[in-house]
Amino acid sequence: MSDQQPDTHAAAGGQATVARIYDYLLGGKQNFPADREAARQLIQVVPEAADIAWSNRLFLRRAVRVLAETGITQFLDLGSGIPTQGNVHEIAQAIDPTSRVLYVDIDPVAVVASNEILTGNPGCRAIEGDFNRPDLILDALDDGDPATVIDLNKPTALIYCAVLQQVPDDRITDVVAPIRDRLAPGSAIVISHLSAAVTDTYGEDGVSTAKNVFRARAATEITLRTDEQIAALLGHYRTLAPGLVPLNNWRPELSEPDPYATAPGGSPMRGVVATN
């Protein structure tokens, strides 16, 4: 993992962000000293933090592949983070070159880095936005420039990968439902989420310490959810086989081996793909 500081938006280096911590865990270069320090503290509590990040990335790739193969050609990735190899657009456009992808992230580093990668790819772009404000995202998609990329009147895959645990219980429905319920027939939703069962592995004290890292270093609260709570986020959508499962159990044959493929308890994250 590189300690090279990116040139992009260097003023953002004062406080860690979840997107850049994730980038560091994946071996990326779009991170700052604050992000690396936060990641190191996290690894002290959760030594396999990088495995968790890779497991999530592999699940995302498999989910996008499956949806692209069903004919979905629009992908709305909310809280998309820093781009790494095997991004949504790379997977989707390998199956259908006409696929269109809109990445949305609150971190300007993620947005700039994404748009640098997307240069010359007119069907894809990244915009700065907060997935906690679906009303503003919908306004942009209805009337703004992003409407030239994504048309919500056509089937669209809505992606929330490893981001909804940043939303407290009293706001989660208001965050997810507006865009989910707006999607056209034939659309899909992809969710990966830290499971409340993680306490069985790391204990209450370990989980509390890990949460404190995100709270202190990235000003982010982490909320764990049970399978029932995660399933409730799907609304009226119907799950694709194998349902809501540990990430390593979601169609593992479609990607390189998951880091948790042989782990007795499987991934501490759950994943699900559902269609309307």
Automatic annotation (TrEMBL):
GO biological processes: methylation
Region (Disordered) residue spans: 256-276
Name of the top EC class for this enzyme: transferase
GO MF terms, alphabetically ordered: methyltransferase activity
Keywords for the protein's UniProt record, in alphabetical order: Methyltransferase, Transferase
EC id: 2.1.1.-
Protein name stated in the entry: SAM-dependent methyltransferase
